[in-house]
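4.2 Preliminary Data

To establish feasibility before requesting continued support, the project team ran the inverse folding procedure on a target of 119 residues. The structure was first converted into the token representation described in Section 3, and no sequence information of any kind was made available to the design step. The complete token record follows.
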């Protein structure tokens, strides 16, 4: 990258790009948490309130996934320095492959519980 001392345009561009990336991580984390919360509410309504048997089984799995997504949204919004570390890439969704692995595992567990416990 062109971060020479004599090139203020390149330095300003890199700062703006880094700030835009941080803003995107925050926004996507909040959007992801809101979407998962809507589906979790659906599971609680159908499985918890209406007592539909095949919607009750995945509630503990979905609750764990909801907590992980909530923590990742909180980390992305509150702790700016930690979102840049590779170890938290999975939680914050900054990595292209790692973020999808988390979703894939969650969907696989939910589908497994859903189909194994159908009435």
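Position-by-position output of the design step:
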């Amino acid at each position: 990258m062109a971060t020479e001392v004599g090139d203020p345009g390149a330095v300003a561009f890199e700062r703006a790009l880094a700030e835009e990336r941080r803003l995107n991580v925050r926004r996507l984390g909040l959007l992801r948490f809101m979407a998962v919360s809507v589906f979790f509410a659906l599971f609680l309504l159908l499985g918890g309130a209406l007592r539909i048997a095949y919607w009750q089984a995945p509630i503990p799995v979905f609750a764990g996934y909801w907590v992980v997504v909530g923590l990742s949204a909180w980390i992305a919004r509150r702790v700016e320095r930690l979102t840049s570390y590779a170890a938290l890439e999975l939680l914050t969704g900054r990595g292209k492959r790692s973020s999808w692995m988390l979703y894939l595992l969650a969907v696989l567990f939910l589908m497994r519980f859903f189909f194994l416990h159908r009435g």
